[in-house]
Amino acid sequence: ESDTASEISFQFNKHKKTPSIGSHSSDMASVSSVSGSVLSVYSGDFGSVDAQGTVEFALDYDEKNREFQVHVSQCKDLAVVDEKKGRSDPYVKTYLLPDKARMGKRKTSVKKRTVNPIYNEVLRYKIEKMVLLIQKLNLSVWHNDPLGRNSFLGEIEVDLASWDWSNRKLNWYPLKPRSLSAVNGVDHRGVMNLSIKYVPPGSLGKMCPRNPPSGEVHIWVKDVKDLLQLRPSGVDSFVKCYVLPDTSKKSYQKTRVIKRDTNPVFNHTIVYDGFHTEDLKDACVELTVWDHEKLTNHFLGGIRLGLGTGLSYGISVDWMDSTQEEVAFWQEMMSAANEWIEGLLPLRSL
């Protein structure tokens, strides 16, 4: 049924709940840092001020160093966030869209107590020109709050495919309110075709040579369709898998890389043993799709299979956030032991 298969043991050490969960929490820091990089462009917006003012910037591409450069000069007449003190502490942030995670965000320094900040800073992206031309630049201005409750002050979006690259001069652009597509998170990342199965402990009978002494979760990653095309030649993709809260090397599995294909067929089966039936309420299977490059891998989208309760073994966790479709898929597996459950689930930002 599949060209590759892997099996690993998965133990929660429930009898040592406090220390084991603590170690999981420290392990989760690395996953949280990845997840944080793919949050919505507007994930930190706590303000309600209206966008106003202008921003002066210039764009350039350094062919020799293969570097996209955003020269952020200054802003004028920004909205006032703290009306009592008559102040804003603005900074400028940039993303390359549609895949906010691909290159990560860039941002300037914070200028305090001014609505007319002067930056004169260059934000740099190492990226091939042909990849850049299928992206959009999102440049937004924010008020920096000491407690992290930042306020959105305005933005501008530039279609880099139609940009005049001979124009290297600084120009003024009006800041606009947030675009509805970005606010609502409308970004299609593709769909994953997979099957999952739960085999309870000892459920296959004594005569079966493959009768597991502990429960098993089987994950069959079949294929993915309509991935983001990051290059004209397609995308070199692979799938990573973890069973959270375990983010150790024991939990980590991945498929082979499928090159130059936005509809890759993986046909890869992973088996996790060491499961007890009660663990299914607190565990979460995280499957993420990545574009493979020499220097770094770029996040394309993912799914999380679990009950989506926000809790794992009584502790609040941000990764227990399964969508309704993902929860229904997991629940169907829990209620149909030893049966393959098939599903077609949309990839999303995690």
In short:
13% of the residues lie in helices and 38% in strands.
What does this structure look like?
It holds the Pfam family C2. It is found in: Cell membrane. InterPro entries: C2_dom, C2_domain_sf, SYTL1-5_C2B. The chain has helices at 17-37, 100-103, 129-132, 180-183, 324-335; strands spanning 4-9, 54-62, 67-76, 90-97, 106-107, 118-126, 136-143, 151-159, 171-174, 191-199, 215-225, 237-244, 253-254, 265-275, 284-291, 298-305, 311-312, 315-316, 341-346. With 350 residues, it is mainly beta. It has two domains: 47-182, Immunoglobulin-like, CATH 2.60.40.150; 190-347, Immunoglobulin-like (Sandwich), CATH 2.60.40. It has a five-stranded mixed β-sheet with strand order 1-14-11-10-19, with helices on one face. A four-stranded antiparallel β-sheet has the order 6-3-2-9, with no helix packed on it. A hairpin with an 8-residue loop joins strand 12 and strand 13 (253-254). The two termini are 29 Å apart.
The assigned CATH architecture of the largest domain is Sandwich
* Residues in β-strands, percent: 35-45%
Q: Helical region count?
A: 5
Order of adjacent strands in the largest pleated sheet: 1-14-11-10-19
Pairing-aware structural class of the strands and helices? mainly beta
- The portion of residues assigned to helices is 10-25%
Number of domains: 2
In CATH, the homologous superfamily of the largest domain goes by the name: C2 domain
Terminal CA distance: 29 Å
Basic shape: elongated
CATH class of the largest domain: Mainly Beta
CATH topology of the largest domain: Immunoglobulin-like
- Strand and helix order: EHEEEHEEHEEEHEEEEEEEEEHE
Q: Low-confidence parts lasting 5 or more residues at pLDDT below 50?
A: 1-7, 13-46, 180-186
Subcellular location: Cell membrane
Main location: membrane
Keywords: Cell membrane, Exocytosis, Membrane, Repeat
GO molecular function, one term: neurexin family protein binding
